[in-house]
Design goal:
The complex is a heterodimer. Helix content of chain A is 24%, strand content 20%. Chain A has one domain: 2-Layer Sandwich (Alpha-Beta Plaits). The longest helix of chain A has 22 residues, at 3-24. Mean pLDDT of chain A is 90; it is low at 22-28. Chain A is α+β, with helices and mostly antiparallel strands. A two-stranded antiparallel ribbon of chain B has the order 1-2. Chain B has helices spanning 2-24, 34-40, 47-52, 61-65, 69-76, 89-93, 105-112, and strands at 81-82, 85-86. Chain B contains seven helices and two strands. Chain B is mostly helical. The chains are: A alpha+beta, B mainly alpha. Chains A and B meet through helix 1, helix 2, strand 4, helix 5 and helix 6 of A and helix 1, helix 3 and helix 7 of B.
Chain lengths: 242, 157
């Protein structure tokens, strides 16, 4: 065998090995996750925000999830406020406006878009949509330019502050990943787990029996800013609230 | 020239052998070339692995029940554990092993206070007129809040 033949053989071997490793690298589950927020059940207690902070070591003053209060006046004006981003609950923050027709609490989080603007703008591919439908960060690649923070139409991203406890994450971007470490272990995200009223539901969009799919059979389902074409996977069930 | 060729082929052989072994995924035979990667500055953890590489802090009621069996059995039959929508231990106690609980009226009130726009999904209590100044746990066992304990209330109205 001369050198040329050997190299050819080597090339073939590399191709075969490459093929093998792609096949077997799919050790992650084949679910496609979805999230439902039931606005008819949210009581604005803020436990989800607290749990998210505790589970994911979210720095002080930043939020992966938060709860907003929507108030609609008799004139049809919509007033949105969010004291402390709802973390301490709304029982200690009574509404200050009058002439209100109706109101409700709206939990917000990363919408895990199927066409995520944050992924599209990232110059170093530090964030991507996983095969099970979650947009996650790659902190080894992130350079902290903040484009994704700007690009997100839902305001779901932030940069770790410069005094963050984990040194290598300082200045890098962070976002809700639906508690990827929990859902890969068969648990619910922390916010869903602590929600006392079942206002936050999590499940597999591929499983027709999942609680998320049951909600999707309703008509009163809306996504946030669908006109942007981001295809979010957080569905809001508004029932008869409006 | 021959020597160089030899080294290159040995390196190729080692790399392909490790990849094959790792790809076949046969039990303990996982060869980690991580140290070479780290020397060369090559990334070793995928984004998925970075995100998954963390133990869950909120463990669930079964985990708590390993030590607190009494509280668990009280809670599991109570109205705080209802129709698949439960108020988990860690919702009030904080995440596992942090061992703190707020017993103030405001803590219970964060869910049960009568506040504007709250949907009718749980018992609402006006904190200002329902026995003001008395801690909730004096009459209601938080693990099984209803019916209240048979305690004669002696304070003023």
């Amino acid at each position: 065998m001369d050198r040329r033949e050997f190299l050819k053989l080597g090339l073939k071997a590399v191709v075969v090995v490459g093929g093998l490793s792609t096949v077997s690298s799919s050790k992650f589950t084949r679910n496609y996750w979805g999230f439902v927020v039931d606005l008819t059940r949210c009581i604005g207690c803020g436990k989800c925000v607290q749990a998210c902070r505790a589970e994911n070591s979210v720095p002080e003053g930043e939020y992966r999830t938060w709860v907003e209060r929507y108030q609609i006046t008799n004139d049809g004006e919509v007033i949105v406020d969010s004291p402390e981003m709802g973390e301490e609950g709304y029982a200690i923050h009574p509404p200050e406006v009058e002439n209100i027709k109706t109101g409700f609490f709206v939990p917000k989080l990363c919408n895990q878009c199927d066409d995520p603007p944050c992924v599209n703008v990232c110059p170093v591919n530090a964030t991507h949509l996983t095969s099970d439908g979650v947009v996650i960060m790659d902190w080894d690649k992130c350079i902290g330019c903040g484009y994704c923070v700007q690009a997100c139409p839902y305001g779901a991203r932030y940069l770790y502050p410069d005094d963050y406890s984990v040194k290598k994450l300082r200045g890098l971007a962070d976002k809700c990943n639906w508690c990827y470490h929990r859902i890969q272990r068969g648990l619910e995200p922390a916010c869903v787990f602590v929600c006392p009223t079942g206002a936050r539901r999590f499940g597999d969009l591929m499983d027709s029996g999942s609680v998320v799919r049951q909600y999707l059979r309703n008509v009163e389902i809306e996504r946030l800013r669908p006109e942007l074409g981001t295809k979010p996977k957080v569905y809001y069930y508004f029932g008869n609230i409006l | 020239m021959q020597k160089k060729f030899f080294y290159v082929s040995v390196a190729l052989l080692v790399i392909s052998a490790t990849t094959v072994v790792n790809a076949l995924d046969i039990g303990p035979y996982h060869i980690d070339l991580g140290i070479i990667d780290r020397i060369l500055g090559i990334k070793t953890l995928s984004a998925e692995e970075q995100n998954i590489n963390k133990e869950p802090g909120y463990k669930g009621a079964e985990y708590c029940s390993e030590c607190h069996a009494g509280e668990y059995s009280t809670w599991s039959k109570s109205k705080h554990n209802l129709r698949g929508i439960e108020v988990n231990c860690e919702a009030c106690h904080g995440k596992a092993r942090t061992e703190k609980v707020d017993t103030s009226r405001e803590a219970c009130g964060s869910c049960h206070a009568e506040i504007p726009y709250k949907p009718n999904v749980l018992v609402k209590v006006g904190l200002d007129d329902h026995f003001p100044g008395v801690k909730c746990a004096q009459c209601h066992n938080p693990h099984n809040p209803w019916p209240p304990k048979s305690i004669v209330y002696t304070g003023g109205e």
